[in-house]
Amino acid sequence: QVQLVESGGGLVQPGGSLRLSCAASGSTFSIYVMGWYRQTPGKQRELVATITSGGRTNYADSVKGRFTISRDNAKDTVYLQMNSLKPEDTAVYYCNANRWELTRRYDYWGQGTQVTVSS
């Protein structure tokens, strides 16, 4: 089982940047697909970006060209670089690690970090 700890959230003005980090421990980091999700009150958690152990990435349309996900397998850490932030990016951001074992998917979540984009 993997444990995830996010950091790097905060308050930023529109157009600004933030970098989120997620440190993993307790399991072999490289076997997991890593991702970032976000959630606002009253809404479902939504995918922001994912990255495979080999570096293949996937992004939500709303963040393409502004956010970049990356991972450092030597440091067991995944990052989310967020540029050109908009007020609608305000949310709690959650780090996710997932893996498949036969036909079952296992998901692990961090505690979340608040990102607020406001002037």
In short:
By secondary structure, this protein is mostly beta strands.
Instruction: Give the end-to-end Cα distance, rounded to a whole number of Å.
Output: 40 Å
Shape, principal axes of CA atoms: globular
Radius of gyration: 14 Å
Which strand-content bin applies to the residues? Answer: over 45%
- Helix percentage: under 10%
**Low-confidence segments, ≥5 residues, pLDDT <50?**
none
Main sheet characteristics: 7 strands, mixed
Oligomer state equals single chain
Average pLDDT rating: 95
Number of helices: 0
Description:
The protein is mainly beta. Helix content is 0%, strand content 55%. It contains no helices and 11 strands. The strands form 2 sheets. Strands 2, 4, 5, 6, 9, 10 and 11 form a 7-stranded mixed β-sheet that branches. Strands 1-3-8-7 form a 4-stranded antiparallel β-sheet, with no helix packed on it. A hairpin with a 2-residue loop joins strand 9 and strand 10. It is globular, with a radius of gyration of 14 Å. The mean pLDDT is 95.
SSE topology:
Blueprint (H helix, E strand, L loop, with lengths): L2 E5 L2 E3 L5 E8 L7 E7 L6 E6 L5 E3 L7 E6 L4 E6 L8 E11 L2 E6 L3 E5 L2
Parallel strand pairs: 2-11
Antiparallel strand pairs: 1-3, 3-8, 4-5, 4-9, 5-6, 7-8, 9-10, 9-11
Provide the descriptors you would attach to this structure in a database record.
55% strand, single chain, 119 residues, mainly beta, globular, 11 strands
